[in-house]
Amino acid sequence: MRKEGTKLDKEKKAELMRENLLERKSEAIIIRKIVAIIALITVILMTVTILGGIIYIKSALKPVDPENNKTVKIEVPIGSSTSTIGQTLKEKGIIKNATVFKYYVKLNNVAGFQAGVYDMAPSMTLSEIAQTLQTGTLAREAIFKIAVPEGYQLEQIAESIEKHTDYTKKEIMEKLDDQETIKQLQEKYPDLLTDSLLNKNIKHPLEGYLFPATYSYYEENPPLESIIDPMIQKTYEVVTKYDEQMKEKKMDVHKLLTLASLIEKEATEKADRHLISSVFYNRIQKDMPLQTDPTVLYALGEHKERTMYKDLEVDSPYNTYKVKGLPPGPIANAGEASIKAALNPAESQYLYFLAEYGTGEVHYSKTLEEHNKLKAKYITEKRD
């Protein structure tokens, strides 16, 4: 009896094992089917998404309406970014997608878009639009242009504005120095126009913030705000490219433009701006006054061929013969070359430099004795 009972137990166990095995196999088949279905759905969804994206991008690359040749005016202000231009084109119905336009420009290395007012139609391709913006085919000519050369000061810019508008130089300067004007501009450009402008020792708050370039205007006697804003916008566009370098140098925008303005006013055509920058850095490191003549002339409010010894006694926070460190603010509007030099001084031990009389060749020296010898040789003797 025991043998028969044992035999039955073994058969039951074997049967249970077979049933469990079959159940597991069935579950495994179901799981594999589920995984396969999920994988297939995922692949289908990814394929549909990719194909949809490709179709969408291809569509966005085509003209909005190939049959519509009716043009609209597109205004591109000075300093406009590709994103801003793309958004304007989208809003005017000239392109389908601003982001696609942005990446089309980037991937095709299209650059050098010119400011102005353009005639554009929905039938234009992205290639035609980009070419139009590059070549500057304007819909209308500028009524007047204002050129701001590198090294120009605010009063000189005011004189240029005066020549092309009904505003007087006095009205322009009063507007530019007006606290309410400064406040409004600070709200628009908070990262550029910081509270450093409010320093009571600053002569003109916007000095150094109107970027050197040629600006076009398309209406007679526009508001002063419309004349000045593109110049500030251009400064913002240029300066923000160097945000990381400013952080590395622990230098804010105001100090950068101040140092760049000194380099700009000291540099001749033959000068190495990076070497001039190194002299200023070396002097600051050694706690020496910068002793740069253009700051004295700025304090005096004069343009002179020569700085006299009596001029060096002017009592002003801008007089770098008397006050150590940088002046309260820029003394002119610096170009990008001087901005780069202010952030990237050359490696040198020079503490002095001078421009040779008659040629503009710049000579550098490490000691006052060497400097005085160079001064006698290249300035005093030649001038006499």
TrEMBL record:
The chain crosses the membrane at residues 34-57. The record marks E266 as: Important for catalytic activity. It is a single-pass membrane protein. Keywords: Cell membrane, Cell wall biogenesis/degradation, Lyase, Membrane, Transmembrane, Transmembrane helix. Its EC number is 4.2.2.29. Functions as a peptidoglycan terminase that cleaves nascent peptidoglycan strands endolytically to terminate their elongation. This is Endolytic murein transglycosylase. It comes from Siminovitchia thermophila. The lineage of its organism: Bacteria, Bacillati, Bacillota, Bacilli, Bacillales.
